[in-house]
Design a protein that fits this description.
The complex is a heterodimer of chains A (534) and B (434). Chain A is of the alpha+beta class and 534 residues long. Chain A contains 15 helices and 15 strands. In chain A, α5 packs across α10, α13 packs across α14 and α14 packs across α15. Chain A is globular, with a radius of gyration of 31 Å. The mean pLDDT of chain A is 89. A six-stranded mixed beta sheet of chain B has the order 10-7-13-12-14-15, with helices on both faces. Chain B has a three-stranded antiparallel beta sheet with strand order 9-8-11, with no helix packed on it. In chain B, a hairpin with a 4-residue loop joins β2 and β3. Chain B is globular. The model of chain B has no long low-confidence stretch (mean pLDDT 89). The chains are: A alpha+beta (534), B alpha+beta (434). Chains A and B meet through α12, α13, α14, α15 and β15 of A and α1, α2 and β5 of B. β15 of chain A pairs antiparallel with β5 of chain B. The structure holds adenosine-5'-diphosphate and magnesium ion. The site of magnesium ion has 6 residues of chain A, from α2 and α4. The site of magnesium ion (MG) has 6 residues of chain A, from α2 and α4.
Chain lengths: 534, 434
C-alpha cells in the first residue's frame, strides 16, 4: 500500500469556552427543544429561588410569571421573584453571566450545584430571542436595590453588562427577581410545568407560591406551616468519598504545614491517631509538607483512606431532610387526605455518602386514584421533584416489588400517594437526565423500611375504618326494617289504643343506635329513607 | 254469608292471643329493651322422640329472634309482617290460604344505605319463605294455623258410613257416589254425628282408594276408607286422629312396600320432623301398619336368613321376633318376579336414614350399592322409632333383596284378592306392625 496522501487537510485545534460548550450541547442541560427549554428555565430559576430562601432560614415567598413576549413569535418571558438572601451586587454579573460560577461548590445539600442552570437558560434565551436577562436584587443588610441587564459573551464565557443601576430601598425588601425571554412552546410544556410546580408545592408547605400562566390562570399555594426544614450545614468530606482530584484540590486550596495537619483539618472523622495510622499505611512521613507530595504519594494516601475500615459513618449534618411535619403539611395542603403519615429515617450511608430517606403516605380525600399496579408515586431528590423516567427509579421498584399492598389493606387502584424523598450530598442519579435514582442496595433497603413503617400506620387506620363501615352496614341492615315493624305492630295493637307509631319508631331508632354505637340521626336517616311498596 | 259460630269462636281466641303476645313485644320496645321473639326451635336437633307417648315432640330449646341480630333481623320483620296479615284476615272474617298470605305480604322495601345508594328488597321471595314464617308464628303463639282459619289445598278424601256436620251442613259420607268427601283444612270444626263402622283403612295411593271404593270394600267390611294421596297433609292426619281418639276406631295404614311408604306410616303414627310441634294434635299413636310388608312378599324365611347378622348389632332378643318363621309369602315366586321393582339408590339412601347405616352395611350384599352407601351415609344413626325388632326385620329384607313393591301390584293380582283376601286376612290374624 502506498504512503498516505500528503493532501490530507490539516487538523485545526482550539479550545472552546464553557459557555460555548453548553451553548453547543445545551441538550445535556435539558434545553433540547422549545417545550423542554421553557420547562427547564422555570425549574432553574425556581430552584435558585428556593435555595436562596429555605436553605437560609427564610420562609419563601415565590412568584413565577410566564407571559407571552411577542405578538408573532413563540417568545415567552419568564420571571421568578423570591424573598431570599439576594446577591452582592458585584457578584451578579458573574453569577448570571459566567458558566460554572456558583456559590454551591461545597459539601452541603442544595438544589443547584454545578453553577450552570441559570446560565444555560440565559444562553438559550439569548440565542433564540436575542434579548438580555434582567436581574434585580438586594441583600438584607444592604440599603440599595441593584438592577442589571446582562448578556453572556459566549466566546469568552464572560458577562456583558448592558445596563446597571441602583436605587434606595424604601421598604425592607430583600431577594431577587430574574427575568428573561426565550423561545418556548407553552402548549406542549404547560402540563409539565404545572406538574412541576404542584409537586414542588407538595414539599414546600412553608412557602407561598404564586404561579401566573400565559393563559391568565393564577395558581396560589398558600403557606400552611411556619416550620422550615433544618438548613444544611457545610461539612468536610468523608474519607471514603475522596479521590485523587479532590485530594489535590484540598492540598492546593489550603495552607497546611504538614500532611498530618491537612488530613486532620480537611476530613470528617480523622483525628491524631487515625491520621498517623493512615500515613503509616501509605508510607508517608507525617511531617512532610503537603506541597512536597508527589501524585503517587497522594494516590497511596487516597487508597489507604478508601481501604481503612474503622471510620465513623459520614455525618448527616450536611443534609436537609424535610421532616415528618413538613411532609404531612405539604400532602395535606394539596390533597386534603383522610389519612396522612410520614417518617424520616435515621441517616445512613452508601459509599461514604450520607443519605436520608423520607416517606409520606396520603390516602383518600382529594388524592387521585392510583393505577392498579402500584400507588401513585411522588419522587424527590434533595427536595427537587423527579417527574420523568419513573419506571427505572429505585422507588418504583420498591413499591412494585418489595411491598405487597394488600397486606396493608390497600386494594389497588386506590386513592393513595406515596411520597419518597431521598436527600444526600451525592444522589446516585441514573443517566444524565437526573430524573431517576439508581438501584443502590442501601438506599433501596431504607426506602422499603420507610414505606413499611408508614404503611403499617395506614393499615391500622384502614382496618379501623373498615370496622366502622361494617358497623354502619350492620345498622342499615337493621334500621331498614323499622318502618315495616312499626306498621305491623300498630295494625295488631291498634294505633288508637295507646301504641303510637311515632313513639315506637323513635324507640326502635334509639335502641338500634344504643346497641350499635351509631349516632341516632344516622339511624334516623336510614329509617326515613325507607319506602314500603304495595 | 253466614259465618258458623265455631269459626267465630276460633277467630276471637286467636285474635286475643295475637294481641297479647305482640303487646309484650311492643312493651319491651317502649321500655327501650332489645326487641326479641322467643319461640321454640323448629329444627331436627330440637325434635324429640318421646318413648312413652310414642310421639315426635318439639324439644325444650328456645330461640330468641332478635331484631338486633343481623342474621335474624329479616326474619324478625317477616314474622311481624305475617302476624299483621293474619291479624287483618281474622278481623275481616277471611279464610286466606297460605298462598294468599304469601301474596298479601309480598312487597318491596326501598331504602338508602349510608352512601345514599338506593336498594330494593322483597319482604319475601318464594312461598317457601312465607310458609316457614307461618310455622314460626304457630309455635310463637302456640296457636295452629287451622285455629287461625288459614286454609291449605285439600288433599285427603274419605268415604264410609259416617255422618258429619261441616259448617252448617250435615253430610252423609256413605252417599258420595263414585266421588268422596274432601277432608277440609279445618277438621276440628267438623262434628261427628253418626257412625256405623268397625275400623278405618288409610290408603297411601289415591288410585287404590278409588278401586276399593268402587269395589264396595267399605260397605262390605264396615270400614271408613281414607286416602292421604301421598304424604299426608295436616287436615288428613288430624281427621284420622279424631276418628281414633273420639270414635275409638282401630286405624290401619296401607302403603307401598318401600321407604317412602314406611315414612308415611310413621308420620301418621308419631308425627313429622318439620311439624313436630303439632304431633300432640295430629299423631295417631294407635295406627297400625298393615302392609304391604316385606314378609308378605318374600315370606318370613327370608328374614330368618339375616338373623345372625342382626343379632351382632341388636343382641339376642331380636332372635325371638325373627327366629320361628310361621308366615308364608302372599305372592308366588312367579308373581314376585312380575311385580317387584328393583330399589333405586335414592330408596336405599332413604331406608338408611330410617334404620341406620350399621344395619344397611351388614345386610347389603351388592358391592356397588354397599360402597355407594358408605360414601353417602356412613355414620347415619337412624330414627329410634324404626329401630324396633319388627321394623328391623322388615327393612333387613329390603336391604338383602334391594327390592320394593307398590300396592297396585296386590290389586293387579286381583282386586278381589286385595279386598277379600289380603286385607281381611291381615286384620283377622293381627298381622301388622304396631
Ligand atoms: N435567586 C437567587 N438568589 C440568590 N442567589 C442566586 C439566585 N439565583 C442564583 N443565585 C446565585 O447564582 C449562582 C449561580 O446559579 P446557577 O447558575 O443556577 O448555578 P447553581 O444553582 O448550580 O449554583 C448560585 O450558586 C447562587 O449563588
Ligand atoms: Mg441553579
Amino acid at each position: 500500500m502506498g504512503v498516505m496522501s500528503a493532501a490530507a487537510p490539516a487538523e485545526r485545534y482550539r479550545a472552546i469556552s464553557p459557555a460555548e460548550f453548553f451553548y453547543k450541547y445545551r441538550e445535556i442541560a435539558g434545553f433540547s427543544n422549545p417545550a423542554r427549554a421553557l420547562y427547564q428555565a422555570v425549574r432553574e430559576f425556581v430552584e435558585n429561588a428556593l435555595d436562596a430562601t429555605d436553605s437560609h432560614g427564610i420562609l419563601p415567598n415565590i412568584k413565577i410569571i410566564i407571559e407571552k413576549a411577542d405578538e408573532n413569535r413563540e417568545f415567552y418571558r419568564v420571571t421568578v421573584e423570591d424573598n431570599g438572601i439576594g446577591l452582592p451586587p458585584h457578584v451578579v454579573p458573574e453569577a448570571f453571566g459566567r458558566v460554572l460560577f456558583s456559590s454551591k461548590y461545597i459539601l452541603r445539600q442544595t438544589r443547584g450545584m454545578f453553577g450552570l442552570g441559570a446560565k444555560v437558560a440565559i444562553l438559550y434565551g439569548q440565542m433564540t430571542t436575542g434579548r438580555p436577562v434582567e436581574v434585580i436584587t438586594s441583600q438584607p443588610n444592604l440599603r440599595r436595590i441593584y438592577y442589571f441587564k446582562l448578556r453572556i459573551d459566549i466566546n469568552k464565557n464572560e458577562p456583558i453588562i448592558i445596563e446597571r443601576g441602583s436605587w434606595r430601598k424604601n421598604r425592607d425588601w430583600h431577594g431577587t427577581i430574574v427575568s428573561m425571554t426565550l423561545e418556548g412552546d407553552w402548549s406542549r410544556a404547560k402540563q409539565r410545568i404545572k406538574d412541576y410546580i404542584l409537586r414542588t408545592a407538595v414539599v414546600t408547605p412553608y412557602a407561598n407560591i404564586v404561579f401566573m400562566t400565559p393563559d391568565g390562570e393564577i395558581y396560589y399555594y398558600e403557606r400552611v406551616i411556619d416550620k422550615l426544614p433544618r438548613p444544611p450545614k457545610e461539612v468536610k468530606p468523608h474519607p471514603y468519598g475522596v479521590d485523587l482530584e479532590l485530594m489535590k484540590r484540598i492540598r492546593d486550596g489550603g495552607s497546611f504545614s504538614t500532611v498530618k495537619e491537612m488530613l486532620m483539618k480537611s476530613f470528617q472523622g480523622i483525628g491524631k491517631v487515625t491520621a498517623s495510622s493512615l500515613l503509616e499505611i501509605a508510607g508517608i512521613s507525617p511531617d512532610l509538607s503537603p506541597k512536597s507530595l508527589s501524585d503517587r504519594q497522594l494516590l497511596e494516601l487516597v487508597n489507604a483512606m478508601k481501604n481503612y475500615k474503622r471510620f465513623r459513618a459520614p455525618t448527616s449534618e450536611a443534609l436537609s431532610p424535610l421532616g415528618e411535619e413538613v411532609i404531612k403539611a405539604g400532602l395535606k395542603r394539596i390533597y386534603e387526605p383522610e389519612f396522612v403519615e410520614a417518617v424520616t429515617r435515621k441517616p445512613s450511608a452508601y459509599q461514604g455518602h450520607p443519605f436520608i430517606v423520607e416517606v409520606g403516605i396520603a390516602f383518600g380525600g382529594k388524592v387521585p386514584l392510583s393505577s392498579d399496579k402500584y400507588p401513585t408515586l411522588l419522587r424527590y431528590a434533595n427536595k427537587i421533584p423527579l417527574l420523568y423516567d419513573e419506571g427505572s427509579d429505585v422507588s418504583t421498584a420498591v413499591v412494585k416489588e418489595d411491598i405487597s399492598w394488600d397486606q396493608y389493606l390497600v386494594k389497588l387502584p386506590a386513592p393513595i400517594i406515596v411520597l419518597v424523598h431521598i436527600c444526600s450530598t451525592k444522589v446516585p442519579f441514573k443517566g444524565v437526565g437526573k430524573e431517576s435514582i439508581a438501584d443502590v442496595k442501601e438506599i433501596r433497603n431504607e426506602i422499603k423500611l420507610a414505606i413499611q413503617e408508614v404503611a403499617r400506620r395506614l393499615r391500622v387506620y384502614l382496618s379501623k375504618k373498615l370496622k366502622e363501615e361494617e358497623k354502619k352496614k350492620r345498622v342499615v341492615s337493621l334500621a331498614k326494617y323499622v318502618p315495616e315493624i312499626v306498621r305491623a305492630l300498630t295494625i295488631i295493637l291498634g294505633d288508637g289504643q295507646g301504641v303510637k307509631a311515632e313513639l315506637l319508631e323513635e324507640k326502635l331508632v334509639e335502641i338500634v343506635s344504643l346497641r350499635t354505637g351509631i349516632p341516632k340521626d344516622e339511624v334516623h336517616n336510614v329509617v326515613k329513607s325507607v319506602e314500603i311498596g304495595v | 254469608m253466614a259465618i258458623s259460630s265455631v269459626d267465630k269462636y276460633a277467630r276471637q281466641k286467636s285474635l286475643e292471643i295475637l294481641r297479647e303476645k305482640f303487646a309484650l313485644v311492643a312493651k319491651r320496645i317502649l321500655e327501650g329493651k332489645k326487641p326479641v321473639l322467643v319461640m321454640p326451635k323448629r329444627v331436627l336437633s330440637n325434635t324429640i322422640y318421646d318413648m312413652n307417648k310414642k310421639l315426635l315432640l318439639l324439644g325444650p330449646e328456645m330461640k330468641r329472634r332478635s331484631l338486633l341480630d343481623v342474621n335474624e333481623a329479616r326474619k324478625f320483620m317477616q314474622t311481624l309482617l305475617m302476624a299483621s296479615i293474619i291479624y287483618e284476615a281474622l278481623v275481616n272474617d277471611e279464610y286466606p290460604t297460605i298462598r294468599d298470605l304469601y301474596y298479601r305480604g309480598k312487597h318491596t322495601i326501598s331504602y338508602r344505605d349510608i352512601s345514599g345508594k338506593l336498594h330494593h328488597e322483597n319482604t319475601w321471595d318464594e312461598q317457601r319463605e312465607s310458609d316457614a314464617v307461618i310455622r314460626d308464628i304457630e309455635v310463637f303463639l302456640g296457636v295452629l294455623r287451622e285455629e287461625m282459619l288459614i286454609l291449605s289445598k285439600e288433599k285427603g278424601k274419605v268415604v264410609g258410613n259416617l255422618i258429619i256436620k261441616s259448617g252448617d251442613d250435615v253430610i252423609d259420607l256413605s252417599r258420595m257416589g263414585h266421588g268422596a268427601y274432601a277432608i277440609e283444612p279445618t277438621p276440628d270444626l267438623i262434628e261427628f254425628k253418626d257412625i256405623d263402622a268397625e275400623f278405618v283403612l288409610v290408603v297411601e295411593k289415591d288410585a287404590v282408594f278409588q278401586q276399593l271404593h268402587r269395589y264396595g270394600f267399605w260397605k262390605k267390611y264396615k270400614a271408613i276408607l281414607i286416602t292421604s294421596a301421598g304424604q299426608p297433609d295436616r287436615a288428613t292426619r288430624r281427621f284420622v286422629r279424631r276418628l281414633s281418639e273420639e270414635l275409638k276406631l282401630p286405624i290401619y295404614i296401607l302403603t307401598d312396600a318401600d321407604p317412602y311408604g314406611w315414612y308415611i306410616y310413621s308420620v301418621f303414627k308419631i308425627g313429622s320432623i318439620t311439624l313436630s310441634y303439632e304431633s300432640e294434635r295430629l299423631a295417631t299413636p294407635n295406627a297400625k301398619f298393615i302392609g304391604v310388608s316385606m314378609t308378605d312378599i318374600f315370606g318370613e324365611e327370608e328374614a330368618a336368613k339375616n338373623i345372625n347378622k342382626l343379632a351382632s348389632i341388636f343382641g339376642k332378643e331380636i332372635k325371638e321376633v325373627i327366629s320361628k318363621p310361621k308366615k308364608k309369602a302372599y305372592l308366588s315366586e312367579k308373581e314376585r318376579r312380575n311385580y317387584i321393582i328393583k330399589a333405586k339408590k335414592k330408596d336405599v339412601e332413604r331406608a338408611v336414614e330410617l334404620i341406620g347405616y350399621d344395619v344397611a352395611d351388614k345386610l347389603i350384599r351388592n358391592p356397588e350399592i354397599k360402597k355407594y352407601i358408605r360414601q353417602k351415609k356412613l355414620g347415619v344413626s337412624g330414627y329410634p322409632w324404626f329401630r324396633t325388632p319388627e321394623w328391623i326385620k322388615e327393612i333387613s329384607i329390603f336391604f338383602s333383596k334391594l327390592a320394593k313393591l307398590e300396592i297396585e301390584a296386590m290389586a293387579s293380582k286381583g282386586l278381589k284378592f286385595l279386598a277379600d283376601t289380603y286385607i281381611p286376612t291381615k286384620i283377622e290374624t293381627g298381622d301388622w306392625i304396631d
